[in-house]
Amino acid sequence: MRLRSLLFAPADSARKAEKAVASGADAVILDLEDSVAPAAKDEARGQAASILRDRPDALIVRINPRGTAWYLDDLAAIVPARPAAILLPKCTSPADLAMLAGQIDVLEAAGGVPAGSVGVLLLATETAESLRDMNYAGVSPRLRALCFGAEDLSADLGIVPRRPDGTLAAPVAAARDRLLIAAAAAGVAAIDTPFPDPRDPAGLQAETEAAAADGFSGKLCIHPGQLEAVTAAFTPAPERVAWAREVVRLLEGSGAGVAVLDGRMIDIAHLKLARRVLAMAPEGSRP
């Protein structure tokens, strides 16, 4: 599953879920948390499980946070229906990931789901507490990505997330930087926060291009109209792909530690970057 564009859809609406699946997003996230009212949680959970049974291994489900009355019921209903991954909101520490991974272990075994098939994505910056420990490296092989959440974090801090010019407030920007580093250390994708205004394509493009330049692999989306710009920003340009293919040919193919490309020295650091570029490239352009 590629993770350039991830589109939320409320789990209690089969119509909206179907529309999201047909949208062309790399991944669709059925949401049991923010978009579902407390009184509708049980119905939404059953609806999500039903949608998943028609598309095993193809959808992500955002469950409710640990510590809520719905968390365990969400897991018990969703894991046997075989989602591609669980998205855990309000993750506060690596201990939350370890606990979730162990619970999925049990539910996979009990439900006849192939062991290790359900991945995990974490919304890892939604609270101030979550920033105390972001060492997710080696905690669980289920981890696929760390996701940056600006809106909930700013609410926890009591501030507005973006300044009038669209830039992030200082503590929110600091959390964004920490997430990028934590994702790289864990060897997983970093996914950027949703852009909150679907009516502002210029703002979306600016924020998305900045995220791609800073090392994010994708972005959470709240409207189908955001997908085209987001997917484009996280798809390497043909010339960048050509560069990466040549780096791989010169270094990986020959076994050399260094080489010269277009008059410049390249080494193992460039090879690592080239592999990442090719992983994000369109299918037909990969080696």
Q: Could you walk me through the main structural features you see in this protein, from its secondary elements to its overall organization?
A:
- By secondary structure, the chain is an alpha/beta fold.
- The protein folds into two domains: 5-234, Phosphoenolpyruvate-binding domains (TIM Barrel, Alpha-Beta Barrel); 238-280, no CATH class.
- It is 43% helix and 15% strand.
- The chain has helices at 14-21, 41-54, 71-78, 94-111, 150-157, 170-186, 201-214, 227-233, 238-252, 268-280; strands at residues 5-10, 27-31, 60-62, 85-88, 119-123, 143-147, 189-192, 218-221, 259-261, 264-266.
- The protein has an eight-stranded parallel beta barrel with strand order 1-2-3-4-5-6-7-8, surrounded by four helices. A two-stranded antiparallel ribbon has the order 9-10.
- The longest helix has 18 residues, at 94-111.
- It is globular and about 65 Å long.
- The mean pLDDT is 94.
- This is CoA ester lyase.
- Mg(2+) binds at residues 126, 152.
- Belongs to the HpcH/HpaI aldolase family.
